[in-house]
Structure formats: C-alpha cells, structure tokens
Amino acid sequence: QVRLVESGGGLVQAGDSLRLSCALSGQASRIRNMEWFRQAPGKERDLIARLDWSGGDTYHADSVKGRFTISRDDAKSTVYLQMNSLKPEDTAVYYCAALIFPARKYWGQGTQVTVSS
Length: 117
Hints:
By secondary structure, the chain is mainly beta.
C-alpha cells in the first residue's frame, strides 16, 4: 500500500507561484514513477509531469513546460510540483499519483488550484 497526501493548493493571481507537495508513505521502494495530473471542470484528467523514480528523468507537458517543475526530496518522502507564472487556464484540481511495481497506480485526494486573472 502507498498513501499520498497533497497540499499547497490555493487561490492566487495570474503570474504568481505555488508549490504543491505530495507526501508519500508505504511501499516507496516499489515506486516506478511519480506523476502530477490536473483536472479542470468538465474536462478529462491530464498528465502534466512525471518523475522516473530510479533514473530521475522528468517529463513535463507542453502546456506547463518552462513554468512547472517536478522534483523530489527523499529525506522528506515528498514530491513537489513548483508552479511559476500561473495562468487562469491552470485552474484545476491537481492530483499526484504513484505507479508501483509492477503496474498499480495510487492516487492522492487532490488539491484545488485557482488562478484569478
């Protein structure tokens, strides 16, 4: 079992920054990768960032590339999503997810990010 708890969401203005956190507990040794998704009202849940757990490679969707950065702090068992230059279209519920060997995905409860213009 893996438990994920997100935090750090809130209401900000366009151009501001936020850092989301995803605290991990459980079978961290079996993690294959960590991901951040977001879901806006009436839209599908989209992958926006991925961190390969063993190699450290990262992926960022075109919509957030250059503005958002996924990272980890092993000492705190936490994965972060640093979000800079926020735009109103970044408004969504943000979820972290862990892909556990061999292929089971665990989700956090989500955290709301609202960006006003």
